[in-house]
Model the fold of this input.
Amino acid sequence: MAELGLWVGLLLSLALFSALVGDNALARLAQHLLVGAAVGYGALLAWQHVLRPRLLSPLLAGGAPAERWIVAALCILLFAGGLERIAAHFAAPAPVGAARHALRFLAAIPAALLLGLSVAVALFGVLQGSLIPQAFDTVRRGLDFGAPPAGFAAGALALLLTTGALLALRVDPDRDLAGQPAPVQRLMLAWLWVGRRGLWFAAGVLFARLAAARFSLLISRMDYFLAELNRTGLWQWAERLWRQVGG
Amino acid sequence: MPIILCPHCGTANRVGSNFCNRCGADLRDEEPRYAPDEARPTRLEQAARRAAERLNPPAEPPAQPSEPPEPPAPQPDTAADAPAHPADAPAHISEGDDAPSPPTVPFFDLGLTSPTPAADPAASQPWLRPAWDAESAEPAEAAVPPAAPDAEEAGPTSSPPGAPARLVTAIQGLLTPLNISAGATERTQPPPPPRLELNADQARSLRRQLADEPVLAARPLPVPPPPPSLRIPWIFWLIGLAAALPVFLFVGSPPPSTAPPLPGVQSAYAAVQALPPNALVVAYWAYDPATAGEMDLLALPALRHLAGQRARLAAVSLLPGGPATARRLAARALRSPNELQAAQPVATFLVQNDFWPGSAAALSLLRQAAAGGMASLAAAPPAVSPASQRSPDMALIFASGAEDVQHWLEVVQPLYPTLPVVAFTSAAADPVVRPYLQSKQLAGLVTGYDGAAAYEEMRSPGATTEATLTLRRHTVAQGWSQVALLLILAAGSLAGLLTRGAQR
Done:
């Protein structure tokens, strides 16, 4: 069985990589299998580790608190609403009856609760976890006038690039600088010039680290192929063939 | 002087003009018309003349007035009654030329009993004169011969003897003759646009035609070239070859890199090294098999280090594949025969491995019953006494994306400000996560294959284990791939420069 899994994994990986040559049926088949397996595994995990132990079993055992029944009702509403939407998508267009309207309205309640909770957590978290600590840290470190020249220059450069990047994203020279005096225009254009170069540099850094991450995935996949070829014996068979051909 | 009225703007142009002086409209097909100040016989005058001619054929044809008449006095009614469309006025005047043939009997004849010839019709009917001024003229009765009885008393059917036949009687002096003219002036208002009555389909069609680009029927529109395709197979093959050669040909096994690692690796190693024995570490597992190719390089050294420190790991994941990945890595970290520490069962190392659905909002479950939230993760095995249960000593984040690190720092960390957090992330997340290291929200940061190699080198300096050899081979392949990418970028930039120069 382990060897079968070995061969299936190798063949499916090769099929997926065949998409580099062009879209073909094997690549499509492998993609469908991958997506289907991932979704099925996720659904099974959700049932085994979440729905059954945390919702269904306590309800069936009895004595569950009232909020569990409310949660169950919301789950059923959301599920039913989702099924209705899917069915309506694949069915012929037809006027929506009162019952379906009511179902859609009720199913929107748990969806709205989920969305509202997620947004609230995200907003509050951004404030307390990112914006406020980062702002305080920036103010605390900021421009240190007592620092050595190199440190002060680094801080000043960071301030210049940050403000220049912000201006480059917000200021339109043709519209915002049209009525300004010439010295102000020259200063702002120079500042914008620096800000744009800072943005280009930041984009370059992002691209470089992203490329490194993707190369890591590619190299790891090459390592996997080599390991699989060794474990399946194909590599040794190819070596023997090469020796025979090459003499 | 006859003029030509422009049919488009109504401006008066001299006869012989080919184009309007004001708007440039073509006047070559227009007929000359008479200016309002010219002695053009009005419709009434023409009818009266024709009636008079029939009754008393003149010896010589009536001549057109030679001297230019005085311009008529401005009359408010005339302005108010001026046609809105000057073109209508010329058409109105022109109707006099195209007027139907006068009836054999004037239709407004109200009883002419004794037709008498009139030597000069205008003599008795001064209102027929073009320059006749109603305000300054004598009453109409004055035109009647004194001997003639009063017209009103005589009745409409009588006329004084010897006087020319009147076309209209009994209204002399009651009506002020109006000098009906075209009223064309140099300051004519432009004609209003014609009112179109269109239905919905016609209006839609008209809007579409007006919005579309005009098409020259005799010339085919140039077809724009198709945009360049971003699928350039030879680039992919070149980079793939550069990555595959070191792997398949075992090209090079360089010594450990002497370049200093990125900031954060040393502090991450130090934080894990400082853990006390039997420490409880919470691991937020935020990557699945899709990104395991890179993240396994980072997670394995960390797990081996934790195993060497005899720590216990409580893994929680928001991804369905996270727990399986954590279990696999934990088994692999304890399986290596080259490790110096004694083999440890996975269950004693990975004490908890949970899947929490609900994305980032599920992390707030850790805030529930603040002290119990985290402690509930410390599901101590039966062999461990309950007294050993305590709050975690450290939090590790294994994330392929920056947002997972941010979620932890935003949702969980504020509740446990003294808990040290070390992040192991993908290289792509490094630029976004590094500010959190600078602000001391992260105790350590290890990113990418280079961070993993540096961490492994710190953990086992100079070792030639399978892990270190794999990382070194990976480093070589990364170098080759990045050189290939730089060559492609340089070639593309050079081609772009040459092309731009050629276009100039």
Remarks:
- Chain B touches chain A through 55 residues (CB under 8 Å).
- The first helix of chain B runs from residue 43 to 55.
